[in-house]
Amino acid sequence: MPPAITAEQLSKTFRVKVRDPGLRGALEALLRPRYRDVHAVREVTFRIDPGEIVAFLGPNGAGKTTTLKMLAGLLYPTSGRVEVAGFVPWGGGPEFKRRIALVLGNRQQLVWDLPPEETFLLNRAIYEIAPAAYRERLAEFVTLLELGDVLDKPVRQLSLGERMKCELAAALLHHPPILFLDEPTLGLDVTAQEAIRRFLTEYRDRHGATVLLTSHYMQDVTALARRVLIINRGRLLYDGALDALVARIARTKRLELVLGGGDGVTAEALAAFGEVKSFRFPNAVLEVPREEAAATSARLLAALPVADLSIEDPPIEDVIRQAFTRGVEEDDS
Amino acid sequence: MNRVADWARRYGALIRNAWLVDLQYRASIVLWIIWGVTEPAIALGIWWSIAGEGQVGGYARADFARYFFALMLVNQLTIAWDSWYLDRWIREGDLNYRLARPLHPAHEAVAENIAYKARSGGMILVVWLVAALVWPAVRLPLAPGRWTLTALAVLLAAAMRFFISFATGLLAFWTTRATAIMGLHGGVALFLSGRIAPLTLLPPAVAGVAAVLWFPYMLAFPVNLLTGAVHGTTAVLHGFAGQLVWLGLWVGAYRLAWTRGLRRYGAVGG
């Protein structure tokens, strides 16, 4: 099966005007404008197969949204090749656009003053969805996203979570096989985030859709995607399984202990086994080199009154932060 | 046939949404209508008092009254606000989802125009009909030929003003001053399109400038066609030819700005 999304050596350079502060700077910019090239995306290459959910991670300004917009055909690449659903996005026209959905967490297509159902009806006409199919899909989304109570309320009266759910429904009514989601859970509370994650997984399972999403919430990533793309300063740093990333980046393991036998154990005694991350009797967390985790655990069990012990990877946020700052090297030394 | 039905449904849905949004803003609509009536009413008041019992440039009081009532209607049926919408769509990133839909954003703009014009034009027509009941000066003969030609000229003028506004709004791809440029255009058009006075009353030099630009075809030509000030095959054909030429040029400007602008599009929020 051909890949759903292919990007080869994809680059985007913006030319921005630079000016010094103050009146003089403004005058100079007017008389002798100076420009600087900003390389938003540099030679990014990846392929995504049909049905995959892939998370696109990177700090603000890393090039995630720019890449997403090039894949959706909104931005013209400076160089490189893109193919999405068999189309070159920029020239794909209406046939291409029927195959994708683009949801931008900070921009909405719902008509602010009207109930969401009016936007749904508009999209029914724009995407030429047959009435029977429309009713069936709307019913499906109303059930999955629990939209029953909000369909007839003006969008401006809805909560942020309700609005995002409706936004997703509006964007997916035409059943696109490819979804580009930019921060779909931005600013939502935990319940709404979970509802959206459940919905996206369900939609993918039912319709075999390919999903590429950006998010700053690690729960989104761990719950939805097995594969992540990490981008920073326009360059792709990592493309692979989330588990493998953790194994490669995280040079340590966390030993989470519950101590027994009174309060005789001190922080100093624990420090002999590894770096004490936290200690409040009876709970303690130690960080030890990855390869020594098993041996250290055995020594701990023998030397101290340990009631419970578990070996964990460091929090995924820490791993990603390390990947952004240090890069992702093969070498573990 | 199926394609036609699909497009009818799309336009139907877009116009319906535009009207539903309008209903949320009833007060602002009333204000716009008052403005639409007030401006020509003030101009009429001034010329009314200047004309006195005599004539100015061949216009007596009754002629001015017919001119400005016709202007009031034609202006509402041809006015276009698109540059303001486009400026916002481009600067604030609302163009993004519109570009991701299988529908050119211009169709949404055209539908908005139809919705606005049907509503405001209809209201102004009612105002005119009520005025005509009590004021014989503003009555126009029911000549089907003239009304048909006027309808065609209004359609062309509306199309031209739409493309002017749309193309100017697209300048937002390059500058943050697109609406200021449109405002400047509106200021010039106030004089050169016949909004402040019939063009024959302008100083010859100004009228000469207007004659070689698109402004008279935006308003003055359809208005004069409706009042009967333009008559005779040559004058009528000349007017329609001018409309078609300028419409063609502005469509060209729009196409150029659209293709170049999209390539340049920085897509805010990247």
Task: Annotate the secondary structure layout.
The complex is a heterodimer of chains A (about 325) and B (about 270).
Chain A: E1 5-18, H1 22-31, E2 34-48, E3 53-57, H2 64-71, E4 79-84, H3 93-97, E5 100-104, H4 116-126, H5 131-145, H6 160-172, E6 178-182, H7 190-207, E7 210-214, H8 218-224, E8 227-232, E9 235-241, H9 242-249, E10 252-259, H10 267-271, E11 275-280, E12 283-289, H11 293-303, E13 306-312, H12 316-326
Helix pairs in contact in A: 4-6, 6-7
Chain B: H1 2-24, H2 26-51, H3 61-78, H4 82-92, H5 95-99, H6 105-134, H7 144-169, H8 178-192, H9 204-211, H10 215-218, H11 220-227, H12 233-264
Helix pairs in contact in B: 1-6, 2-3, 3-6, 3-11, 4-7, 7-11, 7-12
Could you walk me through the main structural features you see in this protein, from its secondary elements to its overall organization?
The complex is a heterodimer of chains A (333) and B (270). In chain A, helix 4 (116-126) runs parallel beside helix 6 and helix 6 runs parallel beside helix 7. The radius of gyration of chain A is 25 Å and the shape is globular. Helices cover 37% and strands 29% of the residues of chain A. Chain A has helices at residues 22-31, 64-71, 93-97, 116-126, 131-145, 160-172, 190-207, 218-224, 242-249, 267-271, 293-303, 316-326, and strands at residues 5-18, 34-48, 53-57, 79-84, 100-104, 178-182, 210-214, 227-232, 235-241, 252-259, 275-280, 283-289, 306-312. The longest helix of chain A is centred in the middle third of the chain and has 18 residues, at 190-207. Chain B has one domain. Chain B contains 12 helices and no strands. The mean pLDDT of chain B is 92. The interface between A and B is medium-sized, with 37 and 28 residues.
